Model the fold of this input.
Amino acid sequence: MDRLFYIAKDEEILNGDATDIYFMRTIDVLRAAGLDKVKVRAEFHVVNLPRNYKWAVFAGLKEVVSLTVTKELPITIYAMPEGTLFKANEPIMVIEGNYVDFAVYETTFLGILRHYSSIASKAARIKKLAGDKSCIFFGARVVHPAIQPMVDRASYIGGCDGVAGVVGARLLGIKPSGTMPHALMIVFRHATGDHTLAWVWFDKVMPNDVPRIVLADTFLDEREESMIAAKLLGNRLYGVRLDTPSSRRGNMEAIVREVRWTLDLAGYKNVKILVSGGVDEDEIIKLRDIADMFGVGTSIAFPPSVDISMDIVEAYDEKSGRWVPITKRGKLPGFKQVYRCGDTFDDQVIPWDWEPAVCRDGSKPTPLLRKFVDNGKVAEPVPSDQEIRSYVLNQLRYAEI
Done:
């Protein structure tokens, strides 16, 4: 094997090798038949969102644009801005060009958009439920290391306040967020007989800009370990993390309330509580009024799939010089635009050249699909990751779950 890991190399993705074989065969057939100049418009959309989802977050556009521009593919891309909250049966991206020029990349484009959008959508739901409480993505350990940075980025632009992955944080231009593993206390317990010395040494060694968040459930009761940490570190203790194994968890809400009550009673109201370990939407709803932070990994890293598909919706007729609506059965033909009224998510999906209805307040709706690539060249730059995240958070203020 010519590599250490079963991952596609950059050049393989750029060259279109990371694809389904039937696209390569399709291109061979079309070229042999003299149909390699058939120009189409292909629409990306979701027919059905995951169960209980009213919306999803469109993510991954940056990588699609990067691939297209790097290869100078002679295609034009219209898309919603990355980070846009969209609904089922809305076109989120449209490719215009000769079909043979991008057919081999359908697999790659869909893989990027589906994976990114699935993770970003789940992260957005978690952040929406957490409200003003911090949510850190702890999912680096549950995905293949080759895609850690991508998963970190998807969770971050989806709304997470930080990521634990070192490479992902570096590429995002932020500092990684994290606490300490149980292994640290276990080693200290074995070597010194006192696991709490791990917290003291952590405080001695770590730079001042690293929050002193102690993992407080390794050997003793959560309340007891939290109090020991508070007394040892005093006002240098930023918070305690409760990562109680499911085998001993019981009622997590009761545990958090007990720790909060005890810390407050002893005068440590400033000490924050971070809950991690199997955290998902239901647990956040139960704990958001008493916990200060959440560490969420698996539920974001392995979310319900946002099943984006691509379908040809128009083909160009050389004789008449017109675009002809065409698609397979069960799909709506024609090039479409999505118009949105303010922050209401009251959207209109209409043929591209039709005039939209005015909004209920009399204002004009905003077209969501914009041209990001024009014949292989950047037409509009994709915003920075921080700008995309801010865009998502602003929309979440008005979105309902």
